[in-house]
Amino acid sequence: MAKLWFKFQRYFRRKPVRFFTFLVLYLTAGSLVFLHSGFVGQPAVSQNQANPAAGAPVEGAELTFLGDLNLGRGFRDTGEVSSIARRYGPWFKGKDGNERAKLGDYGGAWSRALKGRVVREKEEERAKYIGCYLDDTQSRALRGVSFFDYKKMTVFRCQDNCAERGYLYAGLEFGAECYCGHKIQAANVSEAECDMDCKGERGSVCGGANRLSVYRLQLAQESARRYGSAVFRGCFRRPDNLSLALPVTAAMPNMSVDKCVDLCTEKEYPLAALAGTACHCGFPTTRFPLHEREDEQLCAQKCSAEEFESCGTPSYFIVYQTQVQDNRCMDRRFLPAKSKQLIALASFPGAGNTWARHLIELATGFYTGSYYFDGSLYNKGFKGERDHWRSGRTICIKTHESGQKEIEAFDAAILLIRNPYKALMAEFNRKYGGHIGFAAHAHWKGKEWPEFVRNYAPWWATHTLDWLKFGKKVLVVHFEDLKRDLFVQLGRMVGLLGVAVREDRLLCVESQKDGNFKRSGLRKLEYDPYTADMQRTISAYIKTVDAALRGRNLTGVPDDYNPR
Description:
InterPro entries: P-loop_NTPase, Sialate-O-sulfotransferase, WSC_carb-bd. α15 packs parallel to α19. The chain folds into three domains: 125-217; 226-321, no CATH class; 343-561, P-loop containing nucleotide triphosphate hydrolases (Rossmann fold, 3-Layer(aba) Sandwich), CATH 3.40.50.300. 37% of the residues lie in helices and 17% in strands. It is an alpha+beta fold. Residues 37-124 have low confidence and may be disordered. It has 19 helices and 21 strands.
């Protein structure tokens, strides 16, 4: 044996090239074996994981119009695994007719896609994945708005954009393209054809070449009801002087919401008011402020051309807000002369400071500044972001500072306070997901969230206490009150800023209040991230702040802080 080994060494010593060739071949063979085992040896998923709600109907799984258009098979399955079996074909079932639980039986690409679908469907409550669909540049499957991002496209970003515009479906294609629509006008195809990762989220599928990964959006969220891209504002009494309040009127014997909204959009008015067989268009004004909503039963007269929608009556109007932008409050500029006082817009991070700046700029027509510089906010229209905070060219200055020296540098302040439970989550989302993005589930479940609460929760209390103690002239505004009664609270804020604002301009702000700085609510956590210890600690901070406010004869914290 030793003699054989000696001959082997002498052979390669004389021919080193042969040795290295042999070594390369050996390593290559080992790599191929390793890769092969990675593709065919995927971990198994238990039956409970693959089918957490066996026997329960899949919400939103039936698309009846597909049958009418003869574009593909219908969706009438029960349970997630049966849905997967439908998508992947009859081969997914075993010899005994039961769905297979192992994800690795059919190759790595299939197993990864299948595993991703199971996990995603379990996590997404607000958007339901419904399948892979054919798309054509000449005849789009989703024919609403679209946008592309070849660097940062994610599933949730596409969903959020489509949901904010009132669409029922969001589709992703080619890893970077997002399409919205009210109706899918294409055939369902094999899931394997949607095989491209999202450009901004590796591991998530964003369609394929001429293939859409389509989601149905659950739009019954928060306070806004929609009809297509129009936002439902409510039922309102007919204004006293109709021709002045709503200057455009058209008779519509075959009235429908679509027809009235389309007319007002074409005429470039932000409000569409349905009054039985008449359509009125206009702006929110003091003659028609949309502040006193009536019982919807007073408007419950069916549209003549639409069976399931109400079209109002001659005395009570159903009002929708169109996609037309109300430009009466969109002009903004720097102050014409240097301001003699510095006014802070102070808040704890996550308390809605960026949203408040948006409202103030629309209400006053002047840019707001910042103690910091955020290039992303500057690019989104906050032009005062680049100015030094002492420049005197902006109407107020955003700040999160809470030290005595920093606070005493300002002559007055609007102190914006928000429920700490909501503020902490908002700031955590901003820190890990951007101004309107979301933190990943891994961040919530990992060490980041407990550490964040431990460091930031005390700051929420000391921030308010410091401003109450060291601020020279402080106007306290609760985020919840601003959201609930924007007209009154924004009027208070503008009053401190010393700017005379017409009432019609404030009404315009109401209709543009969300801007581009609101999270859509699509991706809400399915569990409470606050542990019992966290809640006890935060509740103590809330009581301290409440006592400090009441000690200065101010309104205490809103009732919904505890319990949240």
